[in-house]
Design goal:
Elements lengths: L2 E3 L18 H7 L4 H6 L3 E3 L7 E7 L5 E8 L6 E2 L18 E6 L1 H9 L4 E4 L17 E5 L8 H17 L5 E4 L8 H7 L2
Parallel strand pairs: 6-7, 6-8, 8-9
Antiparallel strand pairs: 1-2, 2-3, 3-4, 4-5
């Protein structure tokens, strides 16, 4: 299906009215995303086809050219998906040019940090940080902020393992590196929404 880019000036509540679900714009607002940044990052909505009822997340290269897209399903599984055969790419890669850069788990958390004036990139899932990306961060002060999981859980172990691998890759290249731990069960978006 076609991708409809979300414009806050348009009413999208009718898009899902028949299914009694919230509109894609409302869904983004509930996660703390502001209209200016929804437009800036060209978040869209797919109404039909394989990625039906999904927020589209365009991923641009360092020159701001379209590279690929990821999709966040509002209902159904998998929660996140991408076109078959596409590799994972960093979201908001143009922010790497800043001296201090935050690396988050996901596109929406990176967007929230950008809204607060912090340069951020989003890794599309904890296990998808690719070795070749480390060169993008040479000389940066790096802050890694991934979602927090219940200690002892399988998700907690997976996050710890992924963080260890990323830190080993980046530490020799970075000017400084810090891992910021969030309260259990929280992510950047949930903390922002509870205290904007």
């Amino acid at each position: 299906g076609d991708i409809a880019f979300i414009s806050p000036s348009e009413s999208l509540t009718a898009v899902l009215a028949a299914t009694k679900e919230m509109s894609p714009l409302e869904w983004l607002h509930q996660r703390g995303l502001q209209d200016e940044y929804i437009e800036k990052y060209h978040f869209g909505y797919v109404g039909e086809g394989y990625f039906a009822n999904s927020i589209s997340i365009p991923v641009l290269d360092g020159l701001a050219a379209y590279r690929t897209a990821r999709f966040r399903r509002l209902t159904g599984e998998p929660k996140y998906d991408h076109p078959k055969g596409e590799r994972a790419h960093l979201f908001n890669i143009s922010s790497v040019k800043h001296h201090t850069i935050y690396i988050t788990e996901g596109e929406f958390d990176a967007t929230i940090l950008e809204q607060t004036g912090r340069a951020a990139v989003g890794v599309p899932g904890i296990n998808n940080f690719r070795d070749e990306w480390r060169w993008l961060f040479v000389g940066n002060d790096i802050r890694i902020v991934f979602d927090s999981e219940e200690p002892g859980s399988e998700a907690f172990k997976a996050v710890r393992q992924a963080l260890g691998r990323i830190v080993r890759q980046l530490e020799p290249l970075a000017k400084g590196l810090e891992v910021i731990e969030l309260p259990v069960g929280e992510d950047i978006s949930s903390l922002y929404v509870s205290n904007p």
